[in-house]
Specification:
Length: 113
């Protein structure tokens, strides 16, 4: 389950930020997760709750924003919406679609007090 290592990395970033800003507690963490990122949001939520225990982010709300997938279809020559890696182009059916969006995950916002 790579979500545990992702959650550990997120907590490290959150705790570093809280320490730098001299925060007492983290109230909210907003993540953007791309549909093509191979991250399971429910598993990440569970792991986040586990690794945040007894730290500055204990009890913080984890909000996940889904980012749709997109790709560049070589035969069509245009950007198309895709829901899976190596899927077919919804316009022409070609499998020559190079992912261009929705493949990453990032911390968008941290609310501290």
């Amino acid at each position: 389950m790579h979500e545990m290592s992702l959650a550990e990395g997120i907590i490290q970033l959150v705790e570093d930020t809280a320490r730098r800003e001299q925060a007492q507690r983290v109230k909210l963490v907003v993540l953007e997760i791309g549909k093509l990122s191979s991250v399971a949001p429910d598993a990440l939520r569970f792991c986040f709750d586990v690794v945040s225990k007894n730290g500055v982010a204990d009890g913080a709300v984890l909000e996940i924003v889904d980012i749709p997938g997109s790709g560049w279809c070589l035969p069509c020559g245009q950007t198309v919406a895709i829901s899976e890696l190596y899927g077919a182009c919804p316009q022409c059916g070609s499998h020559q679609v190079q992912p261009t969006g929705g493949t990453d995950m990032r911390v968008k916002e941290i609310e501290i007090e």
